[in-house]
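Quick question, first post here. What does this chain look like in 3D?
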Amino acid sequence: MIESIMRMAETHLKRLNNRRRETCSAVDLVIGVQCGGSDAFSGLTANPAVGFATDLLVRAGATVMFSEVTEVRDGVAQITARAASGEVAAAIIREMQWYDDYLKRGGADRSANTTPENKKGGLSNIVEKAMGSIVKSGSSTISGVLSPGEKVKQKGLIYAATPASDFICGTLQLVAGINLHVHALPDLRHLQHDREPDSRSRVMSVGMTFALIIASIDLLVGSVLALGYRS
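> Answer (accepted):
Ran it through. C-alpha cells below.
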C-alpha cells in the first residue's frame, strides 16, 4: 500500500512541478486568514496587519475568508454588525448557535478557552482572544457565510465557519476554495520543524522568535511597529 501511495505522489508531484507562477488580478485571489497560538501581541500586531491587508484585498476585488467559530463566538456582536444583510447576520448566528449547542451537549464551558499557552502569552480570557481574532477580518462588510464543507461562490469578505484547530480550519478553507493561506503566528510553537515552501504566507508578531526561524516568516509586524519601518 505504501508503495502505491508513493507512486501516486510521484505522479502528482511531476504535474505540480510543471506549474509556474503567473501574474494575476486580485479578483482571482481567494485567501483564507487564520491565527494560531495567540498571545497578548497577536491582537496588537500581526492580526491587525492581516486585517488591514484584508480590507485592501477586498476593495481590489479579491475574496477573503476568516473562520474559527470557537475564537470569534464571544465577539459575535462585532461581526453581525458588519453583515451585508439580515440573512447574513442570521447565518452567522446560526453557526454560533451550533457551537453553543455542541458545548451544551458535552457539558463544556466556553471559558475553558483560552488555552494554557494563550494564558502564558498574556491573554486572560476568551473575550480578549475573540477581539484579537476578529481583527484579522478588517472592517469590510461581511458578504456571506459558509458552513463547513461548502464552496465559496461569491466575492468579498466571507465568514467560513470552522473549528479553530490549525489543521482543520486550514483544510476546510481549502475545501471552500482558497488558493492562498495567510497564517498569523505569535511564537515558535507553530514552527517546530522546517517546512518546504508552500502557498502559506506567515505573519509574525514577536521579534525574539523571528530570529530563530527567519526562513519561515514572510513579515515581522513587531519590528514594523517598534522601529517604524515602512513597507
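Residues 189-200, 204-215 have pLDDT under 50 and may be disordered.
The first helix runs from residue 2 to 17.
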